[in-house]
Amino acid sequence: MSPYSSPANYFMSPFHQTSPFSKSPWNFSLFNSHGNLPASGLIGSLVREEGHVYSLASSGNLLYTGSDSRNIRVWKDLAEFSGFKSSSGLVKSIIISGEKIFTGHQDGKIRVWKYSDSNNLNKKAHKRVGSLPTTRDFIKCSMNPNNYVEVRRHRTVPWIKHYDVVSCMSLDEQHGILYSGSWDKTLRVWRLSDSKCLESVNVHDDAVNAVVVGFDGLVFTGSADGSVKVWRKELVKNDTKHILVYTLLNQETAVTSVAVNVVDAVVYAGSSDGLVNFWERPKDVLVQGGVMRGHKQAVLCLASAGRLLFSGSADKSICVWKREAGGFHSCLSVLTGHGGPVKCLAVQENLNQDDGGGGREWVVYSGSLDKSVKLWRVSEPL
Q1: How confident is the model at residue 325, as a pLDDT?
Q2: What is the reported pLDDT for 358?
Q3: Contacts for 79 with CB less than 8 Å, ≥ 6 apart
Q4: What does the mean pLDDT of the chain come to?
Q5: 128-186 residue pLDDT tens
Q6: Which residues of the chain have pLDDT under 70?
Q7: What angle do CA 290, 295, 298 make, to 5 degrees?
Q8: Which backbone phi and psi does 28 adopt, to 5 degrees?
Q9: H helix runs in 197-271, sequence order
Q10: Residue among 230, 212, 295, 222 at smallest CA distance from 256
Q11: CA–CA separation, 100 and 97 (whole Å)
């Protein structure tokens, strides 16, 4: 089954059945159900009554949604498929790496889950397999007084663990590295092969709101202190450390989100003032490319796909931007329909579209504080 096939197939899926959670609060509504899906615009809406949607991640035909409830819901072909519970409440970020799912939580923990694809519907599809840091590493680190760092006055904690909300994560698949940013102002570097915390970097003077693995080994971080910083892993005294390369932005208003167009080497940063700044790399150094003005309130999330950029805002809308030749960005459309601030975005290419020569097509998932996830179809013009 594909989420891009005929609307009737959504409800013929064998996975459209009772959730492992009793009395599911979710309801899926498909728009334009008596005919073909729209070429561009709203496809449907997943409405939940259990909490505001703070995080999204998609992989293949699976969609993961995290909220300020204790549940992470899983959808397969847009039918409710599975789910799993955590004990820490709000789920701020979700990252998928193969069969593993990493969730960042309000209690400073990163929980690790594993997905087992099975035709046995009674078998639990997702199960908890650990956390970052591992319990063993945390205990080992805690036994050495030299491993404690001061986080507040008269309070010290082991350096290996975030002590505040894990607000963002990004995956470097090539090197098997996971980056996590936190409101504790730090960035942590995790090696996925053995779940080791390799490094803790004090990256900002306020909460870290965004971390993105970019191009040429660069890592970008955005913070409530109003700055966007660029980091690179370098060899320092026989050890690899992340070193500050330069600061792209330093403003009074908070940076809420960062996205990267890896192909064209463009960096975007959304701010609480409703603006999106971007930088390009005409030669060897990133330079300011301009400012995109499309929102009346704070930009809360960004997602890059192809030559398009999607920006979600507290004004309840999503702007679709296209990068033209020469670096100019035009606003193709504004997606409206949410009843609350748009908090998170995820984008997948529609590989099953009809090849009509009209350019690429994307399916966009948007999560909102109105307790819903909406699905949009967006065409990228040539």
Answers
A1: 82
A2: 64
A3: 10, 11, 13, 15, 16, 17, 28
A4: 85
A5: 899 999 999 999 998 998 888 887 777 888 889 999 999 999 999 999 999 999 999 99
A6: 1-40, 48-49, 89, 117-124, 352-358
A7: 95
A8: -100, 125
A9: none
A10: 222
A11: 5
Cβ-in-10-Å burial (0-12, 13-18, 19+) of 340 comes to middle
Cβ–Cβ under 8 Å, residues 71 and 21: yes
- Residues 6 or more apart from 50 whose CB is under 8 A from it? 25, 67, 69, 71, 371
Q: Cα(376)–Cα(362) distance, rounded to whole angstroms? A: 8
31 burial via Cβ count (<10 Å: 0-12, 13-18, 19+)? middle
Closest to 233 in 3D by CA, of 152, 175, 151:
175
For residue 158, CA distances in Å to 45, 138, 145, 182 come to 43, 8, 8, 15
pTM: 0.87
Q: Which residues of 143-167 are buried (b: 16+ CB within 10 A; e: fewer)?
A: eeeeeeeeeeeeeebbbbbbbbbbb
* pLDDT at site 50: 73
